[in-house]
Amino acid sequence: MPRMFDILRGKEEKPDEDAEKVEEKDEKKDIDIPPSKSPEPPVSFPKQDMMTKIEDEKKPEDHSLVSKKLIAEVRKHGVDNQEKAKDIYEKAVETLKTLLVKIRTREDLSVYMDKLYGLLDDLFNQLVLGDSILTNIYDDRVEEYYLPHHIVNVVILSSIIGLNMGFNKSRLSHIGLSSIFHDVGMDALREIAAQSRKLTDEEHGLVKTHIQNSLAVVDRVGTFSEVVKETIRQHHERIDGSGYPKGMKADKINAYAKILALADTYEAITHKRPHRAALNAHNAVRFLLGSLKNNFDSGVIKLFINKMSVYPVGSIVILETDEIARVISVQPGSPLRPVVMILRDADGEPVKQSSVIDLSRQDFPSIKGSI
Predict the structure, then answer these.
(1) Residue 1 — very low, low, confident or very high, per pLDDT cuts 50/70/90?
(2) In terms of residue numbers, what domain contains 136?
(3) Other CB atoms within 10 Å distance of the CB of residue 150
(4) 142: pLDDT confidence band, cut at 50, 70 and 90?
(5) Cβ 280 vs Cβ 314: under 8 Å
(6) How far is the C-alpha of 266 from the C-alpha of 234, rounded, in Å?
(7) Same domain membership, residue 286 and residue 156
(8) 143-147, 289-293, 357-361: segment of lowest average pLDDT
(9) Strands (DSSP E) along the chain, which ranges?
(10) Are 257 and 179 in contact (CB under 8 A)?
C-alpha cells in the first residue's frame, strides 16, 4: 500500500500490465520473478550548487508537488486544521524531548530512528497539505526548555524551503535529519545557554563546540549519509566567510547547510532567549534583508521571503477595523492579504472565540500595519 506522502505527490503505483504478462509467461518456466517495484535509487549530493541545479532540471515533479484536487478533498474532511496540526507539533516536540534524554543517558539511538523518521513523515505530510502547523511555531513557552521546540521549528522551516524548491523525498529526508540533529549538541551546554547575561569569550568558544557534540551523537547512530554530517558541520558557516568553524564561503558550503543556516537563524531571532528578547516575524524578515543579507544565500532568502511574505506567518498585525490579529498562513500571489486569526477586538479586549479571516478573498478589511 503506498504511503500518504507518495499519494500526495502523485506517485501512487499503478498496475503494470506488461509485468503481469511477463509473470504469466515465466510461471510456465517455473522461474521466480522478483517484485516489479524496485527500491528508490540512492540520491547522491549534487556537485554543483543545488539552487542552480533545481532550476535547470525540468522534471515532472517540479511542475506540481501534489494533486490540488486531492488536497482540496483532504482539507474538506478536516485533515489540514489547527487541531490536527497542533497534535502533530506536540508529538514532534515530545519525540525530541525523548531523544535528548536518550542522548544524555547514552542509550542506543539506532533503535529510535524509526520514531524520528515517523516524525519527519508526519511533518512533511502536514506541510504538503497546508501551513496550519506553522502557527504552533510562534507559541513562546518561556517556562519550558527551548531546545526541543527550537529543533522542531527548524525542521518545519527548513522543510518549507525544501518543498518550495521542489525537493523529492530523499532530499527532504536529508534536510530533515540534518535539522533534527544540528543542535542536539547544545543540550550538553544548556547551563551556559540559560545565562541571562552576555556570554564571555570563553563561553562563546564553548557554545561553538555544540557542532562537534552533535556530530558525536550522529556517529553513535552510525547510519547517516556523509551529506547529513556535512550539513550539520557547516550550518554555522556563512556566505561571506564570517561563520564557523572554518570560515567557509559561498561556493564551499553545501546547499542543505545554506537552507539550515537560514532556518536556524530565523527561528532563533523570532524566539525569546534568557539573554535577549525576540523579534517579531515582520522585523525578523527586515533583519534578514538588511544587516544579515550577506550571511545567507540570496536564492534561499528570496524563496523563504516569498513564502513567508511581507507579513510572515506569526506576525501580529492591526486591521482597518482596529482588531489585532496573527498571520497564520500566506496566500501565494497575495503578499499583502494573508490569512489571519483575530486575537483582540477593536477595543483591545481578547476575543472569547478566535475567528479566521482569509483577507485575499475579500476587499475589507486590509492590514494597517504590523505590531
Answers:
(1) very low
(2) 80-308
(3) 20
(4) low
(5) yes
(6) 17
(7) yes
(8) 143-147
(9) 316-319, 324-329, 339-344, 356-358, 367-370
(10) no
Torsion of CA 76, 70, 63, 296, to 10 degrees: 50
Q: Which residues pair with 327 in a beta bridge?
A: 340
| Edge-to-edge strand list for the sheet holding 324-329 | 356-358, 339-344, 324-329, 316-319, 367-370
* pTM more than 0.85: no
**Of 88, 93, 174, the residue nearest 127 (C-alpha):** 88
Cβ-count burial of 312 within 10 angstroms (0-12 exposed, 13-18 middle, 19+ buried)? buried
- Decide if 195 is inside a domain: yes
DSSP state of 354: -
CB atoms within 10 A of CB 215: 18
My answer on whether 92 and 162 are in the same domain is yes
Report residue 362 as a C-alpha cell: 475579500
Of the candidates 165, 152, 81, the residue with the CA atom closest to the CA atom of residue 123 = 152
Report which of 325, 364, 323 is spatially closest to residue 347, judged by C-alpha positions. 323
Residue labelled with grid coordinates 570560515 = 247
Residue 319's DSSP bridge partners are 367
Number of domains, the chain: 3
Closest CA to 318 of 353, 287, 342: 342
pLDDT tens string 257-295: 999 999 999 999 988 887 788 888 778 888 888 889 999
Span 209-241, pLDDT tens digits = 999 999 999 999 988 999 999 999 999 999 999
Beta bridge partners of 199: none
Q: C-alpha angle 54/55/59, rounded to 5°?
A: 70
DSSP SS3 for 165: coil
pLDDT band at residue 76 under the 50/70/90 scheme = low
Please check whether residue 149 lies inside any domain of the structure: yes
Query: Among 51, 73, 95, which residue terminates a domain?
Result: 73
